[in-house]
Specification:
This protein is an alpha/beta fold and 383 residues long. 45% of the residues lie in helices and 14% in strands.
């Protein structure tokens, strides 16, 4: 066993791995940093997202400190990626012996780092705990369930998450409803969002939008949607039909671009569909907040559109964020191209669902996390 780092009794290792983690971690680290010298922080990146266009630019846009270490695991199957994170995180963590490891969300790295920490008897803090889609075929659902079982502190973003955790025999004293840290970032950065007109001008497409028509925003990245030619082809057919009535702006995730290239569809999209490279957070926020509707398969976008009151059509059969449907602006459309087109047309006709903002989605979730972590950390220290 390597020697513990200095002040390890109050040292927290924070883990990020993918783009949505960064939006969640930025406010958390700011709030915890306010506890210094009571708490010290270290940020480690697993390298699960390794494309600079999906990663580095977000650190700058969100004022997130550079990680002290990058595990550089890259891509791979779920098993390979999870195993690589565990192997590389294990040795690194043994040298530090922190007071806790804080993970966010539900990606492979979330579970991998939680499992390594738990086996080393290092407490795990899970932010965004208790979300459930009830779909065990979704890898993220397994990551969520298992990470919650391993965690000493579980911070939830919506009230239903507590009931989910209690149903899974999580002790109630470990559960804290704090709100949504993703919305902390949205509220903080909204005034800095890059207007769509500026973005189109910078891209040399100032003439893209028809007068008074507005536009829709599209994001697709889930393997179940983009890794299968027939599925992605059907979704693209639906989007082309929608774009005939409403111009669509479609920033492409690297894996989506790769598959569209393989299908030969990159260079034959209609003029009413603008394909863009991956955008940083401030550009995406600008595109989102001025859109007439958003078509997505992203959980984070479901939350952000609910906070913004933008109608969201989710191209999935289910969601682990049901509050965006029951209370927000989200509609689950499934992946049938005809259903997606019909819902988009209905939204354009009647304005779609505006919804309301869920409880504690007020921009202060991270502060509530810090208010719990500080006393909890003090209680962990030996007398």
């Amino acid at each position: 066993m390597h020697a513990a780092t200095k002040d390890s009794a109050r040292h927290i290792v924070c883990v990020v791995a993918a783009r949505p983690n960064l939006m969640k971690m930025a406010p958390i680290m700011r709030a915890l940093d306010a506890l210094r010298p009571r708490v010290t922080l270290e940020l480690v990146h697993t390298g699960q997202h390794y494309d600079p266009s999906m990663d580095t630019q977000h650190f700058a846009a969100l004022d997130l400190p550079a990680p002290t270490h990058n595990l550089e695991v890259g891509s791979g199957s779920h098993a390979v990626q999870t195993a690589q994170v565990m192997l590389r995180f294990d040795g690194w963590l043994r040298e530090r012996r922190p007071a806790a490891v804080l993970v966010v969300g539900d990606v492979n790295s979330t579970l991998a780092c939680a499992l390594v920490a738990a086996k080393e008897n290092i407490p795990v803090i899970h932010v965004e705990a208790g979300l459930r889609s009830r779909d065990r075929a979704m890898p993220e659902e397994l990551n969520r369930v298992l990470t919650d079982q391993l965690s000493a502190l579980l911070f939830t973003s919506e009230a239903q998450a507590r009931a989910n955790l209690l149903r899974e025999a999580i002790s109630p004293e470990r559960i804290h409803f704090v709100g949504n840290v993703m919305i902390d970032t949205l509220r903080r950065e909204q005034a800095r969002a890059v207007p769509v007109a500026q973005q189109l001008d910078d891209a040399g497409r100032a003439d893209f939008l028809r007068d008074g028509c507005g536009y829709g925003l599209v994001t697709l990245h889930r393997a179940s949607n983009v890794d299968h030619p027939a599925m992605l082809g059907g979704l693209m057919d639906a989007l082309e039909r929608i774009s005939a009535e409403l111009p669509l702006i479609f920033p492409l995730h690297p894996r989506t671009r790769l598959m569209l290239n393989a299908l030969g569809r990159i260079n034959r999209t209609p003029p009413s569909m603008l394909l863009l490279p991956p955008q940083d957070y401030l550009h995406m926020l600008g595109l989102m907040q001025d859109a007439r509707l958003v078509v997505t398969d992203s959980g984070g976008v479901q939350e952000e559109t609910t906070a913004l009151g933008i109608p969201c059509i989710t191209a999935r059969a289910n969601t682990e964020r049901p509050i965006t449907v029951s209370q927000g602006s989200n509609t689950i459309a499934g992946t049938d191209p005809r259903a997606i087109v019909a819902i988009c047309r209905a939204t354009l006709r009647d304005g779609g669902r505006a919804g309301s903002i869920p409880a504690l989605w007020d921009g202060h979730a991270a502060e509530r996390i810090a208010a719990v972590v500080g006393p909890w950390l003090d209680a962990q220290r030996p007398a």
